[in-house]
Amino acid sequence: AEAVAESSADAIRLRHALDTLPQGVIVCEENGEVVFRNARAIGLMGGRHGDALAATAVVELLADAWKTGAADKTLDLYGPPRRTLAVRTQLIDDGRRTLGVIAVIDDISERRRLEEIRRDFVANVSHELKTPMGALGLLAETLVAETDAAVAQRLASRIHTEAFRVSRIIDDLLDLSRIESEEAPPREPVLVNLLMAEAVERMRAAAEQRDVKIEMSEPTPPVAVLGDRRQLVSALYNLLENAVKFSYDGNLVTFTGTVGDGEVQLEVEDHGVGIPARDLDRIFERFYRVDQGRSRTTGGTGLGLSIVRHVAANHQGRVEVESREGEGSTFRLILPTQSEVA
Ligand code: ADP
Protein backbone atom coordinates (compact mmCIF):
# COMPACT_ATOMS: atom_id res chain seq x y z
CA ALA A 1 0.00 0.00 0.00
CA GLU A 2 2.90 2.32 0.85
CA ALA A 3 4.49 1.70 -2.54
CA VAL A 4 1.22 2.45 -4.30
CA ALA A 5 0.71 5.67 -2.30
CA GLU A 6 4.29 6.69 -3.02
CA SER A 7 3.95 6.12 -6.75
CA SER A 8 0.66 7.96 -6.91
CA ALA A 9 2.26 10.90 -5.07
CA ASP A 10 5.03 10.80 -7.69
CA ALA A 11 2.49 10.88 -10.49
CA ILE A 12 0.66 13.81 -8.96
CA ARG A 13 3.90 15.72 -8.48
CA LEU A 14 4.91 15.07 -12.04
CA ARG A 15 1.54 16.10 -13.40
CA HIS A 16 1.61 19.38 -11.46
CA ALA A 17 5.16 20.05 -12.54
CA LEU A 18 4.20 19.55 -16.20
CA ASP A 19 1.22 21.85 -15.75
CA THR A 20 3.52 24.72 -14.88
CA LEU A 21 5.38 24.50 -18.22
CA PRO A 22 4.74 27.23 -20.78
CA GLN A 23 4.80 24.52 -23.50
CA GLY A 24 2.01 22.10 -24.27
CA VAL A 25 2.89 18.45 -23.59
CA ILE A 26 0.92 15.53 -25.03
CA VAL A 27 1.75 11.85 -24.56
CA CYS A 28 0.32 9.09 -26.75
CA GLU A 29 0.26 5.32 -26.30
CA GLU A 30 1.05 2.81 -28.97
CA ASN A 31 -2.57 2.44 -30.00
CA GLY A 32 -2.62 6.16 -30.73
CA GLU A 33 -4.65 7.02 -27.68
CA VAL A 34 -3.73 10.26 -25.91
CA VAL A 35 -2.94 9.36 -22.30
CA PHE A 36 -1.71 12.69 -21.04
CA ARG A 37 -2.16 16.40 -21.74
CA ASN A 38 -0.73 19.08 -19.52
CA ALA A 39 -2.69 22.25 -18.77
CA ARG A 40 -1.10 24.25 -21.60
CA ALA A 41 -1.89 21.51 -24.14
CA ILE A 42 -5.50 21.49 -23.02
CA GLY A 43 -5.56 25.27 -23.42
CA LEU A 44 -4.08 25.07 -26.91
CA MET A 45 -6.01 22.12 -28.29
CA GLY A 46 -8.97 21.31 -26.17
CA GLY A 47 -11.55 23.18 -24.21
CA ARG A 48 -13.49 26.22 -25.22
CA HIS A 49 -10.60 28.31 -26.58
CA GLY A 50 -8.73 25.39 -28.06
CA ASP A 51 -8.18 24.89 -31.70
CA ALA A 52 -9.70 21.80 -33.31
CA LEU A 53 -7.40 22.12 -36.32
CA ALA A 54 -4.34 22.25 -34.11
CA ALA A 55 -5.54 19.18 -32.23
CA THR A 56 -5.97 17.17 -35.41
CA ALA A 57 -2.60 18.24 -36.78
CA VAL A 58 -0.79 17.31 -33.56
CA VAL A 59 -2.47 13.91 -33.34
CA GLU A 60 -1.38 13.23 -36.93
CA LEU A 61 2.17 14.22 -36.07
CA LEU A 62 2.12 11.89 -33.07
CA ALA A 63 0.96 9.03 -35.29
CA ASP A 64 3.79 9.78 -37.76
CA ALA A 65 6.30 9.86 -34.94
CA TRP A 66 5.83 6.12 -34.38
CA LYS A 67 7.31 5.55 -37.81
CA THR A 68 9.80 8.38 -38.11
CA GLY A 69 10.98 8.85 -34.55
CA ALA A 70 11.88 12.39 -33.54
CA ALA A 71 10.52 15.16 -35.74
CA ASP A 72 10.17 18.96 -35.71
CA LYS A 73 7.36 20.68 -37.45
CA THR A 74 5.89 24.16 -37.61
CA LEU A 75 2.12 24.39 -37.88
CA ASP A 76 0.61 27.53 -39.37
CA LEU A 77 -3.01 27.89 -38.35
CA TYR A 78 -4.83 30.57 -40.21
CA GLY A 79 -7.32 31.18 -37.43
CA PRO A 80 -8.59 33.69 -36.54
CA PRO A 81 -6.59 34.32 -34.51
CA ARG A 82 -3.66 33.36 -36.70
CA ARG A 83 -1.27 31.14 -34.82
CA THR A 84 2.04 29.41 -35.34
CA LEU A 85 2.89 26.35 -33.28
CA ALA A 86 6.27 24.65 -33.21
CA VAL A 87 5.80 20.95 -32.43
CA ARG A 88 8.60 18.55 -31.55
CA THR A 89 7.81 14.86 -31.25
CA GLN A 90 9.99 12.18 -29.70
CA LEU A 91 9.70 8.50 -28.89
CA ILE A 92 9.80 7.51 -25.22
CA ASP A 93 11.49 4.18 -24.59
CA ASP A 94 12.99 2.43 -21.60
CA GLY A 95 15.90 1.00 -23.56
CA ARG A 96 14.07 -2.18 -24.50
CA ARG A 97 10.83 -1.10 -26.05
CA THR A 98 8.91 2.02 -27.04
CA LEU A 99 6.44 3.14 -24.40
CA GLY A 100 4.83 6.05 -26.19
CA VAL A 101 5.43 9.29 -28.02
CA ILE A 102 5.57 12.76 -26.60
CA ALA A 103 4.81 16.00 -28.40
CA VAL A 104 6.04 19.31 -27.00
CA ILE A 105 4.19 22.29 -28.42
CA ASP A 106 5.45 25.87 -28.37
CA ASP A 107 3.17 28.75 -29.32
CA ILE A 108 5.58 30.92 -31.33
CA SER A 109 2.91 33.24 -32.80
CA GLU A 110 4.14 36.33 -30.97
CA ARG A 111 7.77 35.66 -31.91
CA ARG A 112 6.73 35.24 -35.54
CA ARG A 113 4.72 38.47 -35.46
CA LEU A 114 7.68 40.41 -34.08
CA GLU A 115 9.99 38.90 -36.69
CA GLU A 116 7.57 40.00 -39.40
CA ILE A 117 7.39 43.53 -38.01
CA ARG A 118 11.16 43.71 -37.88
CA ARG A 119 11.50 42.44 -41.45
CA ASP A 120 8.92 44.93 -42.74
CA PHE A 121 10.64 47.70 -40.85
CA VAL A 122 14.04 46.98 -42.34
CA ALA A 123 12.47 46.79 -45.81
CA ASN A 124 10.72 50.13 -45.22
CA VAL A 125 13.83 51.87 -43.95
CA SER A 126 15.83 50.65 -46.90
CA HIS A 127 13.15 51.82 -49.28
CA GLU A 128 12.85 55.22 -47.61
CA LEU A 129 16.59 55.81 -47.77
CA LYS A 130 16.98 54.43 -51.27
CA THR A 131 14.94 57.17 -52.95
CA PRO A 132 16.91 60.18 -51.64
CA MET A 133 20.20 58.29 -51.95
CA GLY A 134 19.45 57.51 -55.58
CA ALA A 135 18.62 61.16 -56.20
CA LEU A 136 21.87 62.23 -54.50
CA GLY A 137 23.89 59.93 -56.73
CA LEU A 138 22.26 61.20 -59.89
CA LEU A 139 22.53 64.86 -58.91
CA ALA A 140 26.20 64.50 -58.01
CA GLU A 141 26.91 62.73 -61.28
CA THR A 142 25.24 65.53 -63.25
CA LEU A 143 27.07 68.15 -61.22
CA VAL A 144 30.46 66.68 -62.06
CA ALA A 145 29.78 67.12 -65.78
CA GLU A 146 28.12 70.54 -65.47
CA THR A 147 30.03 73.59 -66.72
CA ASP A 148 27.33 76.24 -66.40
CA ALA A 149 27.77 77.83 -62.97
CA ALA A 150 24.08 78.71 -62.51
CA VAL A 151 22.95 75.14 -63.25
CA ALA A 152 25.69 73.78 -60.99
CA GLN A 153 24.41 76.03 -58.23
CA ARG A 154 20.88 74.66 -58.63
CA LEU A 155 22.12 71.08 -58.57
CA ALA A 156 24.14 71.74 -55.44
CA SER A 157 21.12 73.20 -53.74
CA ARG A 158 19.06 70.12 -54.59
CA ILE A 159 21.83 67.90 -53.24
CA HIS A 160 21.60 69.91 -50.05
CA THR A 161 17.82 69.33 -49.82
CA GLU A 162 18.12 65.58 -50.42
CA ALA A 163 20.95 65.25 -47.90
CA PHE A 164 18.80 67.10 -45.39
CA ARG A 165 15.95 64.62 -45.99
CA VAL A 166 18.25 61.65 -45.38
CA SER A 167 19.51 63.18 -42.17
CA ARG A 168 15.94 63.86 -40.97
CA ILE A 169 14.93 60.25 -41.55
CA ILE A 170 17.99 59.10 -39.62
CA ASP A 171 17.31 61.57 -36.78
CA ASP A 172 13.70 60.38 -36.50
CA LEU A 173 14.77 56.74 -36.57
CA LEU A 174 17.26 57.37 -33.80
CA ASP A 175 14.60 59.20 -31.77
CA LEU A 176 12.13 56.39 -32.31
CA SER A 177 14.58 53.67 -31.37
CA ARG A 178 15.62 55.57 -28.24
CA ILE A 179 12.00 56.08 -27.22
CA GLU A 180 11.08 52.48 -27.97
CA SER A 181 13.95 51.05 -25.99
CA GLU A 182 13.22 53.32 -23.02
CA GLU A 183 10.14 51.48 -21.84
CA ALA A 184 10.34 53.10 -18.46
CA PRO A 185 11.56 56.63 -19.12
CA PRO A 186 12.96 58.68 -16.24
CA ARG A 187 10.02 59.72 -14.14
CA GLU A 188 10.45 63.21 -12.86
CA PRO A 189 7.72 65.78 -12.39
CA VAL A 190 7.53 68.16 -15.35
CA LEU A 191 5.25 71.14 -15.62
CA VAL A 192 2.89 70.82 -18.56
CA ASN A 193 3.01 74.60 -19.16
CA LEU A 194 6.75 74.41 -19.69
CA LEU A 195 6.43 71.43 -22.06
CA MET A 196 3.90 73.33 -24.14
CA ALA A 197 5.99 76.50 -24.21
CA GLU A 198 9.11 74.61 -25.24
CA ALA A 199 7.33 72.79 -28.08
CA VAL A 200 5.85 76.05 -29.38
CA GLU A 201 9.21 77.78 -29.17
CA ARG A 202 10.83 75.05 -31.27
CA MET A 203 8.07 75.38 -33.83
CA ARG A 204 7.97 79.17 -33.96
CA ALA A 205 10.29 79.87 -36.89
CA ALA A 206 8.75 77.26 -39.17
CA ALA A 207 5.24 78.46 -38.33
CA GLU A 208 6.16 82.08 -39.04
CA GLN A 209 7.60 81.08 -42.37
CA ARG A 210 4.20 79.68 -43.34
CA ASP A 211 2.37 82.58 -41.72
CA VAL A 212 0.58 80.10 -39.46
CA LYS A 213 -0.26 81.44 -36.02
CA ILE A 214 -0.11 79.12 -33.02
CA GLU A 215 -2.50 80.15 -30.25
CA MET A 216 -1.58 78.51 -26.97
CA SER A 217 -3.75 78.28 -23.87
CA GLU A 218 -2.12 76.58 -20.96
CA PRO A 219 -3.96 74.48 -18.40
CA THR A 220 -5.02 76.32 -15.26
CA PRO A 221 -4.09 75.69 -12.56
CA PRO A 222 -0.66 74.56 -13.80
CA VAL A 223 -0.24 70.78 -13.55
CA ALA A 224 2.69 68.42 -13.68
CA VAL A 225 3.04 65.01 -15.27
CA LEU A 226 5.61 62.39 -14.36
CA GLY A 227 7.94 61.49 -17.16
CA ASP A 228 10.74 62.36 -19.48
CA ARG A 229 10.81 66.00 -20.54
CA ARG A 230 12.65 65.35 -23.79
CA GLN A 231 10.24 62.66 -24.92
CA LEU A 232 7.18 64.70 -24.03
CA VAL A 233 8.42 67.83 -25.80
CA SER A 234 9.28 65.74 -28.83
CA ALA A 235 5.72 64.31 -28.93
CA LEU A 236 4.09 67.74 -28.66
CA TYR A 237 6.51 69.19 -31.19
CA ASN A 238 5.61 66.44 -33.67
CA LEU A 239 1.89 67.19 -33.29
CA LEU A 240 2.48 70.94 -33.75
CA GLU A 241 4.78 70.34 -36.69
CA ASN A 242 2.10 68.27 -38.46
CA ALA A 243 -0.59 70.85 -37.66
CA VAL A 244 1.53 73.61 -39.23
CA LYS A 245 2.72 71.44 -42.13
CA PHE A 246 -0.78 70.38 -43.12
CA SER A 247 -2.34 73.85 -42.60
CA TYR A 248 -2.92 76.31 -45.40
CA ASP A 249 -0.77 79.44 -45.34
CA GLY A 250 -2.16 82.00 -42.93
CA ASN A 251 -4.24 79.43 -40.94
CA LEU A 252 -4.60 79.35 -37.17
CA VAL A 253 -3.47 76.40 -35.04
CA THR A 254 -4.77 76.18 -31.48
CA PHE A 255 -2.84 74.39 -28.77
CA THR A 256 -4.90 73.90 -25.64
CA GLY A 257 -4.21 72.21 -22.32
CA THR A 258 -7.15 71.19 -20.12
CA VAL A 259 -7.11 69.42 -16.79
CA GLY A 260 -9.76 67.09 -15.51
CA ASP A 261 -10.34 63.66 -14.01
CA GLY A 262 -6.74 63.01 -13.08
CA GLU A 263 -5.66 63.68 -16.65
CA VAL A 264 -4.34 66.50 -18.69
CA GLN A 265 -5.47 66.77 -22.27
CA LEU A 266 -3.16 68.48 -24.74
CA GLU A 267 -5.05 69.30 -27.88
CA VAL A 268 -3.63 70.52 -31.18
CA GLU A 269 -6.25 71.66 -33.65
CA ASP A 270 -5.66 72.79 -37.22
CA HIS A 271 -7.86 73.86 -40.12
CA GLY A 272 -5.75 72.32 -42.82
CA VAL A 273 -6.08 69.50 -45.33
CA GLY A 274 -7.51 66.97 -42.85
CA ILE A 275 -7.22 63.18 -43.05
CA PRO A 276 -9.60 60.86 -44.95
CA ALA A 277 -11.54 58.55 -42.59
CA ARG A 278 -10.04 55.43 -44.20
CA ASP A 279 -6.51 56.50 -43.25
CA LEU A 280 -7.22 57.46 -39.63
CA ASP A 281 -6.37 53.99 -38.28
CA ARG A 282 -3.10 53.80 -40.13
CA ILE A 283 -1.43 57.19 -39.66
CA PHE A 284 0.28 56.04 -36.45
CA GLU A 285 2.15 53.29 -38.31
CA ARG A 286 5.79 53.91 -39.10
CA PHE A 287 6.32 55.48 -42.53
CA TYR A 288 2.60 55.69 -43.26
CA ARG A 289 1.64 58.87 -45.08
CA VAL A 290 -1.73 59.77 -46.50
CA ASP A 291 -0.30 61.57 -49.48
CA GLN A 292 3.22 60.44 -50.34
CA GLY A 293 3.73 63.33 -52.74
CA ARG A 294 2.66 66.06 -50.37
CA SER A 295 4.54 64.55 -47.48
CA ARG A 296 7.73 64.50 -49.54
CA THR A 297 7.44 68.15 -50.48
CA THR A 298 6.75 69.06 -46.85
CA GLY A 299 9.78 67.02 -45.83
CA GLY A 300 7.84 64.47 -43.73
CA THR A 301 9.44 61.21 -42.68
CA GLY A 302 6.24 59.36 -41.76
CA LEU A 303 7.71 58.64 -38.32
CA GLY A 304 6.36 61.58 -36.29
CA LEU A 305 3.11 60.00 -35.16
CA SER A 306 4.78 56.68 -34.29
CA ILE A 307 7.00 58.70 -31.99
CA VAL A 308 3.94 60.39 -30.44
CA ARG A 309 2.20 57.07 -29.89
CA HIS A 310 5.26 55.55 -28.23
CA VAL A 311 5.76 58.52 -25.95
CA ALA A 312 2.10 58.32 -24.91
CA ALA A 313 2.41 54.59 -24.16
CA ASN A 314 5.63 55.14 -22.20
CA HIS A 315 3.76 57.62 -20.00
CA GLN A 316 0.59 55.53 -19.48
CA GLY A 317 -1.23 57.96 -21.75
CA ARG A 318 -2.94 57.79 -25.12
CA VAL A 319 -3.40 59.71 -28.36
CA GLU A 320 -6.72 60.46 -30.01
CA VAL A 321 -7.47 61.95 -33.37
CA GLU A 322 -10.49 63.44 -35.07
CA SER A 323 -10.32 64.72 -38.57
CA ARG A 324 -12.35 65.67 -41.61
CA GLU A 325 -10.83 65.78 -45.01
CA GLY A 326 -10.63 69.36 -46.23
CA GLU A 327 -11.63 70.83 -42.85
CA GLY A 328 -8.82 70.06 -40.45
CA SER A 329 -7.63 67.75 -37.71
CA THR A 330 -7.55 67.59 -33.93
CA PHE A 331 -4.95 65.48 -32.15
CA ARG A 332 -5.07 64.95 -28.39
CA LEU A 333 -2.27 63.67 -26.21
CA ILE A 334 -3.82 62.61 -22.91
CA LEU A 335 -1.57 61.97 -19.92
CA PRO A 336 -2.24 61.12 -16.29
CA THR A 337 -1.34 64.03 -14.01
CA GLN A 338 1.34 63.64 -11.40
CA SER A 339 -0.84 62.76 -8.40
CA GLU A 340 -2.48 59.99 -10.45
CA VAL A 341 0.72 58.24 -11.46
CA ALA A 342 2.62 58.90 -8.25
P1 ADP B 1 5.03 62.89 -41.50
O1 ADP B 1 6.48 63.02 -41.22
O2 ADP B 1 4.72 62.46 -42.89
O3 ADP B 1 4.25 64.07 -41.04
P2 ADP B 1 3.65 61.51 -39.34
O4 ADP B 1 3.85 60.14 -38.78
O5 ADP B 1 3.83 62.64 -38.42
O6 ADP B 1 4.62 61.64 -40.59
O7 ADP B 1 2.21 61.57 -39.98
C1 ADP B 1 1.77 60.54 -40.83
C2 ADP B 1 0.77 61.06 -41.83
O8 ADP B 1 -0.44 61.43 -41.18
C3 ADP B 1 1.22 62.31 -42.55
O9 ADP B 1 2.03 62.01 -43.67
C4 ADP B 1 -0.10 62.92 -42.96
O10 ADP B 1 -0.57 62.30 -44.14
C5 ADP B 1 -1.04 62.54 -41.82
N1 ADP B 1 -1.18 63.66 -40.84
C6 ADP B 1 -0.61 63.75 -39.63
N2 ADP B 1 -0.99 64.87 -38.99
C7 ADP B 1 -1.82 65.52 -39.82
C8 ADP B 1 -2.56 66.76 -39.73
N3 ADP B 1 -2.51 67.56 -38.66
N4 ADP B 1 -3.34 67.08 -40.81
C9 ADP B 1 -3.41 66.29 -41.88
N5 ADP B 1 -2.74 65.12 -42.03
C10 ADP B 1 -1.96 64.74 -41.01
Task: Outline the structure in words.
The protein is of the alpha+beta class. Helices cover 49% and strands 24% of the residues. It has ten helices and twelve strands. The strands form three sheets. It has a five-stranded antiparallel β-sheet with strand order 2-1-5-4-3, sandwiched between helices. Helix 4 (109-145) packs antiparallel against helix 5 (149-181), helix 6 (192-209) runs parallel beside helix 7 and helix 7 packs antiparallel against helix 9 (304-314). The longest helix is centred in the middle third of the chain and has 37 residues, at 109-145. The radius of gyration is 29 Å and the shape is elongated. The termini are far apart. The model has no long low-confidence stretch (mean pLDDT 88). It binds adenosine-5'-diphosphate (ADP). The site of adenosine-5'-diphosphate (ADP) has 23 residues, from helix 7 and helix 9. The site of adenosine-5'-diphosphate has 23 residues, from helix 7 and helix 9.
In short:
The protein is of the alpha+beta class and 342 residues long. It contains ten helices and twelve strands.
Task: Please outline the helices and strands.
Layout: H1 2-19, E1 24-28, E2 34-37, H2 39-45, H3 52-68, E3 71-77, E4 83-93, E5 98-107, H4 109-145, H5 149-181, E6 188-191, H6 192-209, E7 213-217, E8 224-227, H7 229-245, E9 252-260, E10 263-269, H8 292-297, H9 304-314, E11 318-324, E12 328-336, H10 338-341
Parallel strand pairs: 7-9
Antiparallel strand pairs: 1-2, 1-5, 3-4, 4-5, 6-8, 9-10, 10-12, 11-12
Helix pairs in contact: 4-5, 5-9, 6-7, 7-9
The protein binds adenosine-5'-diphosphate.
Adenosine-5'-diphosphate binds next to helix 7 and helix 9.
